[in-house]
Amino acid sequence: MGVVPEPTGIAATGQRNGAPPDAAPSAGEDALTIAGRTLRSRLLLGTGGFPSLELMAAAIAASGSELVTVALRRVGVDGSRSPQGSLIDVLADAGVELLPNTAGCRTARDAVLTAKLAREAFATDWIKLEVIGDEDTLLPDAPELLRAAEELVDEGFVVLPYTTDDPVLARRLVDVGCQAVMPLGSPIGSGMGVRNPYNISLIREAVDVPVVLDAGVGTASDATIAMELGCDAVMAASAISRAQDPVRMARAMRAAVEAGREARLAGRIPKRRYATASTPEAGTPDFD
Amino acid sequence: MIVVNGESAELEPGETLASVLAGLGLTAQARGVAVAVDGEVVPRARWETFALAEDAHVEVLTAMQGG
To answer: I need a labelling partner for A163 at 20 to 30 A (CA). Which of A5, A84, A192, A214 fits?
Structure first.
């Protein structure tokens, strides 16, 4: 009755099933630190896709998220202002930190310029770096991504790259100075969850910076699985903003991330092919 | 002619970036706004004095829901 090989059950660096994978923090002190900034919430929220800013603000509050993404677009385009006031004012009122992104960029050059504009607009050195290489899947363009990351690190940015679930690319990104990596679970907005749990667990082993699962989360269990695989945080956008009840889904995601984190720290049992009785044999009555 | 956010516009003699931005309803105090001219960031402190070339390509950006 051997242990079934189970890639997703393999624990963090150098440890195997059975051993608690991470140092257990004291209760209530399980904070996430990225580039020296401490976050109590391990859920990052994307602001895209909410039907209104009012609903967005309510979902942010329900999610407990402290770090939310924003994009940069031309002034005057629909959506840059709304009856609820400007996006930037609503986010300031919500008390969250901004993580600008380079969404829509297809080249390193455009991404670097967009990051510099974001720094100017939002007075933050943090950038969620996205360089897209394919229109249908919105998958990252690896060579352009790495080039942009290196340049932005040199310019003093805290770079959080949206990357494929490739452990080697993740390591390369950290080698050039990225302060976290954000591998995709599946394509942006697809809601397909974590398609390659094995790779996500390999990325956790490959780098010594926070791993934030980005893209593909469709519902709460996807976020839990990501955290159980060892991700340090989960980013959710469409899964919350396009849910039928975004505020309720925000609450569900918050609980899911916490549950996955706790399960990871608790150290799951190995998967086995056959049953292992949880009730002892000793003292079993004989009714014959 | 200059191009502002993809729209062609006449350039008045001596016009600065600040006056172009004023045309979009933006002052130097506008929050969450950044400007690039010909692919380079122009910091807020330089909007008032930045002289635009005859064929300048201006992008004026602000926060949008995304990501």
So the answer is: A5
Residue B9: per-residue pLDDT: 84
For residue B13, give how far its alpha carbon lies from the nearest alpha carbon of chain A (Å): 24
Entry field: residues in chain A: 288
B3 DSSP 8-state letter: E
Look at residue A204 and tell me whether its pLDDT is greater than 90.
yes
pLDDT at A84: 45
Q: What band does A71 get if pLDDT is binned at 50, 70 and 90?
A: very high
Taking chain B, what is the end-to-end CA distance rounded to the nearest angstrom?
35
Does A121 sit within 8 Å of B61, measured CB to CB?
Answer: yes
- Name all contacts of B13-18 with Cβ < 8 Å and 24+ positions apart: B14/B51, B15/B51, B15/B52, B16/B47, B16/B48, B16/B49, B16/B50, B16/B51, B16/B52, B17/B42, B17/B46, B17/B47, B17/B48, B17/B50, B17/B52, B17/B58, B18/B47, B18/B48, B18/B50
Band (pLDDT 50/70/90 cuts) for residue A111 is very high
| Sheet of A126-129, strand order | A126-129, A158-163, A182-183
The pTM score is 0.86
- Please name the residues between 8 and 47 in chain B that touch chain A, using a CB distance below 8 Å: 24, 26, 31-36, 39-41, 43-44
**For this structure, is A128 an active site residue?**
yes
**Residue among B24, B32, B67 whose CB faces A101 most closely:** B67
